[in-house]
Amino acid sequence: MGAPILGNMSQKFTVGWLYSDLMNIYGDRGNILTLLKRAEWHGLETNLVELQRGPHPKMEEVDVFFFGGGQDREQALIYDDLKEFKHESLQKAVSNGAQVLAVCGGYQLLGHYYQTAEGERFDGIGLMDVTTQAGRKRFIGDVVVQTNIEGLRPKTLVGFENHSGRTFLGPDAKPLGKVVMGKGNNGSDKTEGTVQGGIIGTYLHGSLLPKNPHLADYLIARALRRREAGALSPLDDSAELAAHDWILRRAQRR
Questions:
Q1: What is the fold of 12-253?
Q2: Which of 128, 132, 146, 183 could disulfide-link 139, Cβ–Cβ 3.0 to 4.6 Å?
Q3: What pTM was estimated for this model as a whole?
Q4: Is 163 a catalytic residue?
Q5: Interhelix angle 29-41/213-224, nearest 10 degrees
Q6: What does the pLDDT look like over 184-200, one tens digit per residue?
Q7: ∠ CA(9), CA(66), CA(40), 5° rounding?
Q8: Annotated catalytic residue: which of 42, 56, 163, 205?
Q9: Domain boundaries defined on the chain
């Protein structure tokens, strides 16, 4: 694991977990733990805010939001609350430099709409120029992505997908990367995920950030720009990146 970087802990870093009680499947809690622990190792004073249903005035304090996955039932349960109590605050936070990592169900609901296999449509909040329709077959398995994020090293992301949604990107959304292995957004155009402003949407579960510590640091560093914080101190990521490389090699042998 990365070695701690000692600091005065004067700089605060807050993670906001959207609907942790309902949108939390496939081990995505690991993303929260990774963000908090790596921020702590970078010498930051960390804080977690769990944003359940209802209004939350503390959303303006959040540096990185995490919006996890859920089944259609869970998405339906949070749908009205997302539009009524979270949309405006989330949009304002992103405009002010906050970052968002949205996985699977969270990714879908940040787009224009999600349509179930039965034809029921849930209008999203439109923070990302994507649309999603459920397919009849699930995409399940390891994924390797060659990312488009400038300055990210290594350029690969590894994870696991388990989704029936087929997500298609509009002109204002850019893919997170190109699928080297797996199905990605829709199984046809070789894209995975979306990057739009301060928002990253993806289907990579399992959890994503423990396997890709470079992406966690990217989110932390981008979020701290609005606080005029200095560059993050480097961490010893040899163990994490060795695990990343092992997963990469295993996936490529299949």
A1: Rossmann fold (3.40.50)
A2: 183
A3: 0.92
A4: no
A5: 60
A6: 999 999 999 999 999 99
A7: 20
A8: 205
A9: 12-253
